[in-house]
Write a structure and sequence with these properties.
By secondary structure, the chain is mainly beta. It is built from 1 helix and 11 strands, in the order αβββββββββββ. Strands 3, 4, 6, 7, 9 and 11 form a 6-stranded antiparallel sheet that branches.
Amino acid sequence: MIARLLTAAMLAATHMSAVPAADASDDRSKVTMVYDHELPNVPGKSMRGVLVEYAPGGTSPAHTHPNSAFIYATVLQGAIRSQVHDWPVTTYRAGESFSEHPGDRHSVSENASASQPARLLAVFVVDTDEKALTTFSK
């Protein structure tokens, strides 16, 4: 089931224009909502796919997501350094994945390479009425 959802979101990414899902402070990163669908068998919940693209050396500021959100992220290209909650900083390469539980803080999210681009697809299961998927830490 997850493979089908990721495939659908990746196909959507190739057919949708860029629509920012959040405003990041680093101009070497781009966030695009590529999929948004209410779950017919889970009233009040939606699945949203967000494509995160990092230019070489690109980063995202520390952030959290809505308390209703469970996130499954998979690296599509390159390598991404990530730290979620209090876990160690880990480098994930294309084909590898990680998850974020409700309330987790994402302290580090960045391209592990200074010379190659990186992309990841984050799939959210979130309350349908949530408007902002990301809140940047101050």
